[in-house]
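Our preliminary data section would be incomplete without showing what the modeling component actually yields. Below, a chain of 285 amino acids is followed by its predicted structure, encoded as tokens that our downstream tools consume directly.
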Amino acid sequence: MSILINGKSSVMISGLTGREGTYHAKLMMDLGTRIVCGVTPGKGGIEHLGVPVYNTVREAMAKHDIDACGVFVPARVAAAAVEESVEAGVPLIVAVTEGICPHDAMRFISLARRRGVRVLGPNTPGLLTPGEAKIGVLASDFVKKGPVGVVSRSGTLTVEICYYLQKNGYGQSSVVGIGGDMMVGTTFLDIYKLFEQDGETEKIVVVGEIGGTMEEDLAAYISKTGLKKKTAAFIAGRSAPEGKRLGHAGAIIEGRMGTAQSKIEAFAKAGVPVAEVPWSIAELL
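Predicted structure:
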């Protein structure tokens, strides 16, 4: 098994006919992803990239069994696109869009939780199961099938760490980006628990960064339940000045919690070694 998606998953793309949707859908298909349809209001009835396009998610759901949806629409309408998929009952929604208003994100994340729908993101690079399927923008050149589950807040750093893992003989079971915004629908802890239950995942890599307390929350869980699988971490932003946001909307330090040191100390207390540089992760595993 892999977590969340595999080669049999039926995927729909919101915004399939747009520039970003088209470009990344082609790459997803090249990896083997089963994209069965797309949704673009006003474009219903056409074919694009060899699959049908519908005006609404409900129309698509009436014709196809959809396991997951990738959202590739502009920020001003992305919340509406996510909410439409939540209300239609899509089980997994991957919100790639960056720059969604935090209030909008809070609203659709709350709605998704009430409906039992998993939202990945917003501002997520997506997820990838090597050799099987991908939803999002993660580069697949430096991943290969293997026993290490990778969960991260960063897209580019994730791919870099996968490259170093691969160089040292460690392939990946699944790679998941939870997103870099202040509000995200799925946390480190959520994905970590899935990796704990996954038979193909033997070791876990957590790629965190400054800001928020998701890393500390995960460390507290590990401290309480114990390490079931060998885990290593990397925290980006060790030298970040306080109060300065770096790259991601969620990467801002406020007070004592959320600093790189706070996260490193929390993981150390939980028995999880933290790499000083990305290329030493493999040694810690």
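The chain has a mean pLDDT of 94. Residues 103 and 183 are 9 Å apart (CA to CA). Preliminary results of this kind motivate Aim 1 of the renewal.
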